[in-house]
Amino acid sequence: MYGKRKMNIKELMAESIKLLKQNNIADANIKSRVLLQYVLNVDKNYLLVHSDAKLDDNIKTKYMKYVKQLIQGKPLQYITKTQEFMGINFCVDENVLVPQPDTEILVEETIKQIENKFKTKEKVKVLDLCTGSGAIAVSIKKHFCNERKLEIYGLDISKQALNIAKINAKNNDVEIHFIESDMFEKMPNMKFDLIVSNPPYIETSTIKKLSNDVKNQPYIALNGGEDGLDFYRVICKESKKYLENDGVVLLEIGYNQKESVIKQFAENNRYKDIVCIKDLAGNDRVIICKNNEYCI
Questions:
Q1: Which tens digit of pLDDT belongs to each residue from 13-48?
Q2: What's the predicted TM-score (pTM) here?
Q3: What is the tens place of the pLDDT at every residue in 108-165?
Q4: Whole-angstrom Cα distance, residue 130 to residue 96?
Q5: Considering only CA atoms, which of 50, 203, 251 is closest in space to residue 33?
Q6: Whole-angstrom distance, CA of residue 59 vs CA of residue 69
Q7: Superfamily in which the 82-291 domain is placed by CATH
Q8: Which residues have a Cβ under 8 Å from the Cβ of 118 and sit 6 or more positions away?
Q9: All structural domains of the chain with their residue ranges
Q10: How far apart are the C-alpha atoms of 261 and 274, rounded to whole Å?
Q11: How many CB atoms neighbour CB 233 within 10 A?
């Protein structure tokens, strides 16, 4: 009696791609490949070279279980426990927002500001508000080769998120000082040259309209309040207490929030030289505000 014929790599991927497309899962080809790389613990080239290799039933069962999770809306990164950001592999899980390519613009602009600070200052201090996985803080410190004259603090309300951030700092051999706090509530009395943040900025009513793989990320990391601007109000109100006279605030924003955020920071001459940087898609993405040292 003959057993059931085993599927090969090419056939299994074709089956999963078909299922994902039938369920309107974006980037079905890429997700199928990355998922199989994860299950087999191999690279992309292995799948191409060994596309006719037969797979054991237990591999197929495990793989299809993950495919089902994708269909149910679980982010691929929560299955593989990893996400690439700024050319670095970061550990992620259900306790943190998955770092997105658009946020790399925020990191790049922060690096430029730090380089400018080092032209006139021996030591530079940076605060990463709502640090989450620590992707922003770790990427910046790693860019500067863990420079001891660059001090970076990562703050988040979530203890679970900070645990992931600490893993990422350790995995990348960089020193970050982490603080568990609801925004500035438990912030030590210190001054920073730069405050950088990718805060929650999605309107509460909009969250339910998002794709399942976004909705299944931490609600606390998505919800920016009724108009999406709650966290910008707090940063605008409190940041000057923790900012050097020549300090800079850098913020990621939603595509439609430029005017509202600029208005907050410009009001009553609180900040000056406010500019907005667009992302690669041409959307408004990063607001940069310089402290007005003459403002009390």
A1: 999 999 999 999 999 999 999 999 999 999 999 999
A2: 0.93
A3: 999 999 999 999 999 999 999 999 999 999 999 999 999 999 999 999 999 999 999 9
A4: 10
A5: 50
A6: 16
A7: Vaccinia Virus protein VP39 (3.40.50.150)
A8: 124, 149
A9: 9-72, 82-291
A10: 10
A11: 14
